């Protein structure tokens, strides 16, 4: 257990059984067949056993922290003797490219929505804050996509600040993996003061040098999705294969030329990109942020979670 996990002593470590048992002690809401069906409909590759064992207790922990956050806001209003603006509870999800951040984010979003239909939940990703390809090219860093300098961090901080301040409608730019670029603002996602906002991205726990404020300052809870890099490479290549499968009918797709060309060469290119860009980024800039997370989900083969680490303090 925890083969590549350098957790320090400020984490409680749980194997699957111990984590699932925690929920057993506090269970109020049963997971229903309809809940599991909705997960299947969302992504039929997700293990329902993991949903029961790992994500259901996680959903409950998040809800407890959320209630505590609301309580704290009320305490503040009481102390100030005036209303304070509603402010979303923000969850950050970090980890390597292709480790499963966006799947984890959307799964958590779905489970929270199903269990607490009175709450509004929204999920956004930080890849919309990458500079557009034209700008990356102008700066000579197109091959550094995903590295800290490829993001407009000032813009990301400004957007999170507006959301946390309780603004009614905040536009968050979106990224499209198929066109491999940021979309125009007409396709932005509108965050409309949800109760809970999930923010997912490789950079959400990073501390850029000389910054006065960090993305994580806006988080009320953070999760790092962790796995052995050799496994993540497999998942990256699987996803690349799936992108090729959808790209060959669409000449506008960034992967079209690879999709209609020689498949072995396309995969050789993807392996190079993994090694020279995404793995490098993981080792240099992403993995060092793991020890800042409140919770670490450690995955093994087939995305099965074998260990959960929860921050003590
Ligand atoms: N729990 C899971 N079970 C099965 N497949 C998963 C799971 N999580 C992610 N995947 C698959 O792994 C690949 C990478 O996941 P994704 O969520 O796109 O990663 P990220 O957002 O970290 O880049 C995708 O092909 C996705 O379908
Ligand atoms: C957009 C990304 C930086 C971040 O992606 P994500 O974690 O959302 O998959 C990444 O998917 C990416 O495009 N990396 C650059 C190299 C490449 O994989 O093509």
From TrEMBL:
Family matches, as Gene3D superfamilies: P-loop containing nucleotide triphosphate hydrolases
Q: Which domain of life is it from?
A: Bacteria
Q: Which CDD domains match?
A: PanK (cd02025)
What is an annotated GO biological process for this record, any one?
Answer: coenzyme A biosynthetic process
Q: Which UniProt keywords apply?
A: ATP-binding, Coenzyme A biosynthesis, Cytoplasm, Kinase, Nucleotide-binding, Transferase
Q: Under which main EC class is this enzyme filed? A: transferase
Q: Name one GO cellular component term.
A: cytoplasm
Q: Where does ATP bind?
A: 95-102
- Indicate the segments annotated as coiled coil, or none if absent: none
Main location (coarse class): cytoplasm
Q: Which reaction does it catalyse?
A: (R)-pantothenate + ATP = (R)-4'-phosphopantothenate + ADP + H(+)
Could you cite one Gene Ontology molecular function of this protein?
A: ATP binding
Q: In which pathway does it act?
A: Cofactor biosynthesis; coenzyme A biosynthesis; CoA from (R)-pantothenate: step 1/5
Q: State where the protein is found.
A: Cytoplasm
Per the UniProt entry, the Enzyme Commission number(s) are: 2.7.1.33
Q: Which residues cross the membrane?
A: none
* One Pfam family, short name: PRK
Residue ranges annotated for the Phosphoribulokinase/uridine kinase domain, each copy included = 90-231
Q: Of which family is this protein a member?
A: Belongs to the prokaryotic pantothenate kinase family.
Stated name of the protein: Pantothenate kinase
Question: What gene name is listed for this protein?
Answer: coaA
């Amino acid at each position: 257990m925890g083969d590549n996990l350098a957790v320090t002593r400020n984490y409680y470590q749980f194997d699957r059984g111990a984590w699932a048992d925690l929920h057993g002690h506090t269970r109020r809401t049963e997971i229903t067949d309809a809940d599991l069906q909705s997960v299947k409909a969302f992504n039929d590759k997700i293990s329902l056993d993991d949903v029961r064992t790992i994500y259901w207790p996680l959903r409950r922990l998040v809800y407890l922290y959320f209630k505590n956050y609301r309580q704290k806001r009320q305490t503040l209003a009481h102390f100030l003797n005036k209303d304070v603006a509603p402010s979303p509870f923000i969850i950050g999800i970090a980890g390597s490219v292709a480790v499963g951040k966006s799947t984890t984010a959307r799964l958590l979003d779905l489970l929270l929505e199903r269990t607490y239909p009175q709450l509004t939940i929204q999920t956004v990703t930080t890849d919309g804050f990458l500079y557009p390809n034209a700008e990356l090219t102008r700066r000579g860093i197109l091959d550094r996509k995903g590295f800290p300098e490829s993001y407009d961090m000032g813009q990301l901080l400004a957007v999170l600040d507006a959301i946390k301040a309780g603004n009614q409608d905040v536009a968050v730019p979106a990224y499209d993996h198929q066109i491999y670029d940021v979309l125009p603002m007409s396709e932005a996602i509108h965050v409309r003061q949800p109760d809970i906002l999930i923010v997912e991205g490789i950079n959400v726990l990073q501390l850029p040098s000389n910054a006065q404020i960090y993305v994580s300052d806006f988080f009320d809870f953070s999760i790092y999705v962790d796995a052995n890099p050799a496994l993540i490479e497999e998942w990256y290549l699987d996803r690349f294969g799936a992108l090729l499968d959808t790209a060959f009918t669409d000449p506008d797709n960034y992967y079209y030329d690879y999709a209609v060309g020689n498949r072995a060469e396309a995969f050789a290119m993807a392996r190079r990109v993994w090694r020279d860009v995404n793995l490098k980024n993981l080792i240099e800039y992403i993995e060092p942020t793991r020890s800042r997370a409140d919770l670490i989900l450690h995955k093994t083969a087939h995305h099965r979670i074998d260990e959960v680490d929860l921050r003590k303090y």
